[in-house]
Design a protein that fits this description.
- The chain has 651 residues and is α+β, with helices and mostly antiparallel strands.
- The protein folds into two domains: 48-435, no CATH class; 459-650, no CATH class.
- The strands form four sheets. It has a 16-stranded mixed β-sheet that branches. It has a four-stranded antiparallel β-sheet with strand order 14-13-16-19, covered by helices on one side. The chain has a two-stranded antiparallel ribbon with strand order 2-3.
- Helix 3 (72-79) packs parallel to helix 8 and helix 6 (127-140) runs antiparallel to helix 7 (150-161).
- Residues 1-31 form the signal peptide.
- Keywords: Signal.
Length: 651
């Protein structure tokens, strides 16, 4: 017979021992009144999914490129699982609602099209406003703004190239901004669905074709945020000036804000620079400010993947994933010059993490110590990153249609950047997973600041990643893995320091497949380190493999295989594993060297969105270079290691 008293006594003793262990760790000491909650009080148990980068028709480019009807209301409703009508007239719906959303419409010219459409009096009483109004009316004559014409071309040239327009459009943006903040509050429902007030600061940097864009995310509510106007490229194109704006905002309001650099693969080598925009070398002040205001980096989105580039990671079998070499998409010339490789090193996440270590030793602070997130950057107002439910970048050219695969992905920009890639080069990505205590602005924002976040190209893979010194192999199999992870070490986004002699870090790792998605192929640890000779290195470790596979003596792993039927746009989960878990110890650790570690979790091969389109629309005879199969993935935020003698440089 079950002895109830004995069970209660054992449970009481277990809880006391756990609590005593926690209280012995200074950083984990809790207030006395929380004592009975033991470790549960500090363990974020839930992963919340969202899009950190979505545009609606309030962005000028979204509107003139076809999205005239999907605004903030429709975007919020769609993200919560409601059915809305897309710009092409089709009905759209997510398979699963998201937990949070950041609407990041361009801060410059915010709501300009709405001002023209409504005949805003402040706008059209000026010379510049009247000229825009005339051009806008010419666009509407018989064709509408979704059809690209010479009139549309001239209109966009006026907006982007004439500085005199900026003072006029600011009048409109001020009134629209208040509506944006209030609308975010209206749809914010703590515990169910969280909205963050945000916008995009859109700078091209020193090059007319660069991309130094940042998504600015506010923690506060409308009452707090509406008192400030978005800082835009009309004010400055220098990120350091944006950081000054963020600092001023926090000092005035007492409310938190951060900026997220995105899409570095198109930054023309400027996203992670060695020199500031004023020409001076990156110094400790720059490093301190950047690490303070930009704790996260958008590593995957519609315009390609920015984890690494095959030129930078030539030995990495999985490096060439949704690669864009520039605004033209994939480089078809095959250029592999030293100059191009050097430029790419300042664009991609992995090389930037290594560059950050070098700068830490040089200037005394790591400016590129960021966590990984994903966002769609869709301008349709529809936050979709699923291959079988992909709604594209722009409404005019890339929402579902019979011809979208081979249509230029953004005809509107031909006037500015030259020939554009076809739509098949776009990627159905990405989302952000956040480990937090609850679905609220406060809790999610706190997790973003501590970098306990990770990026996914779309699948909602659950990823846990902890680093410490004393994890045991059996810890990976425990039901309370997270509690063990926090009690013995630090989560993704954290720091390890001061290894004891003869000690190497251990990592507690678990990944679980998307409940509605594909099985997992493998988990890889990506390590970067800086040796005593001033050189940086990277290495990929296959730490968990599905189907009982193992590396051979040369480190080769047999491919997981593929079950994809391209013609039917289908696959089976007869290969791969639904869950992979392991405790891994670094076999090449040197306690005197700076290092970082992050996870790359790979699914088995699945149909790409192009295969779903081909099946749905009955397309045949498509060019062979169009990829029909993908291998989706998740990227954790890193865990960094700093030797004892370098700790002052970390702080």
């Amino acid at each position: 017979m079950l002895n109830i008293k004995s069970v209660f006594r054992k449970e009481f003793i277990r809880r006391c021992l756990v609590a005593m262990a926690i209280l012995s760790i200074p950083s984990l000491v809790m207030p006395e009144e929380n004592y009975p909650q033991h470790l549960d009080a500090i363990v974020p148990k839930n992963v919340y999914w969202g899009d950190m980068h979505l545009h609606t028709n309030l962005s000028v480019d979204a509107y003139v490129f076809g999205n005239t009807g999907v605004g903030p209301d429709e975007a919020y409703r769609f993200a919560q699982g409601e059915t809305v009508k897309a710009s092409n007239g089709m009905w759209a719906k997510l398979d699963r609602p998201l937990d949070f959303l950041v609407l990041a419409d361009h801060g410059f010219n915010l709501g300009l099209m709405e001002g023209l459409q409504s005949g805003n009096s402040e706008l059209i009483k000026t010379d510049s406003g009247q000229r825009l109004n005339r051009q806008y009316k010419n666009i509407l004559k018989g064709k509408g703004p979704s059809i690209w014409t010479s009139e549309t071309d001239q209109f966009v040239r006026t907006i982007y190239n004439e500085g005199g327009v900026s003072s006029v459009t600011k009048l409109v943006s001020a009134s629209i901004w208040e509506k944006v903040t209030l609308r975010a509050d209206q749809y914010n429902h703590p515990g169910k669905f969280t909205t963050f007030i945000g916008y995009e600061w859109t700078s091209s940097g020193l090059s007319p074709s660069g991309n130094l864009h940042r998504v600015v995310v506010f923690e506060g509510d409308a009452e707090t945020v509406k008192e400030t106007l978005p800082y835009t490229v009309f004010d400055s194109s220098d990120p350091e000036d944006l950081w000054s704006y963020l600092e001023d905002y926090e000092e005035r309001t007492g409310s938190d804000v951060l900026a997220i650099a995105h899409n570095g693969n198109l930054s023309n080598g400027e996203m992670f620079p060695l020199n500031r925009q004023n020409g001076a070398p990156v110094d400790i002040n720059y490093a301190d400010l950047r690490s303070r205001w930009e704790p996260l980096y958008e590593v995957t989105q519609i315009k390609g993947d920015s984890e690494t580039h095959p030129l930078l990671s030539s030995l990495d079998t999985f490096a060439d994933y949704e690669t864009w070499d520039g605004w033209e998409g994939r480089d078809i010339t095959g250029e592999t010059s030293e100059a191009l490789t050097e430029k790419k090193a300042s664009e991609y996440a992995r090389s930037a993490l290594m560059l950050g270590m070098s700068l830490q030793l040089k200037v005394g602070k790591n400016p590129f110590k960021f966590g990984m997130i994903g966002g769609t950057d869709s301008h349709t107002g529809l936050t979709t990153a699923d291959e079988n439910n992909y709604w594209g970048k722009f409404a005019e050219s890339s929402e579902p249609s019979f011809s979208r695969i081979v249509t230029p992905s953004w005809k509107p920009f031909v006037w500015k950047y030259g020939e554009k890639p076809l739509n098949w080069g776009m990627s159905a990505a990405g989302y952000t997973g956040v480990w937090a205590h609850e679905n609220s602005r406060e809790s999610l924002f706190a997790a973003m600041k501590r970098k306990e976040v990770y990026a996914s190209t779309g699948p909602r893979i659950t990823v846990r990643f902890f680093g410490g010194w004393d994890y045991k192999p059996d810890d990976a199999l425990r039901s309370d893995l997270a509690q063990i992870g926090y009690s013995k070490g630090v989560p993704m986004g954290g720091d390890l320091t001061s290894a004891a002699k003869g000690k190497a870090p251990t990592f507690l790792i678990r990944a679980v497949k998307d409940p509605l998605g594909a099985n997992l192929d493998r988990i890889q640890v990506i390590k970067g380190w800086h040796d005593s000779q001033g050189q940086v290195y990277e290495k990929i470790y296959n730490v968990a493999l599905s189907d009982g596979r193992a590396e051979d003596d040369q480190g080769f792993v047999k491919a997981v295989g593929s079950t994809v039927d391209v013609n039917d746009a289908s696959y089976t989960n007869s290969i791969g594993d639904p869950e992979l878990a392991v405790v891994w110890q670094d076999p090449d650790f040197d306690r005197d060297e700076l290092a970082f570690y992050y996870l790359r979790v790979l699914e088995i091969p699945t149909p790409r969105w192009t295969a779903y389109d081909a099946k749905f629309f009955g397309l045949e005879g498509l060019p062979k270079e169009i990829p029909m199969v993908t291998q989706e993935r998740a990227y954790s935020s890193p865990i960094w290691y700093t030797p004892q003698q370098l700790i002052p440089l970390q702080n």
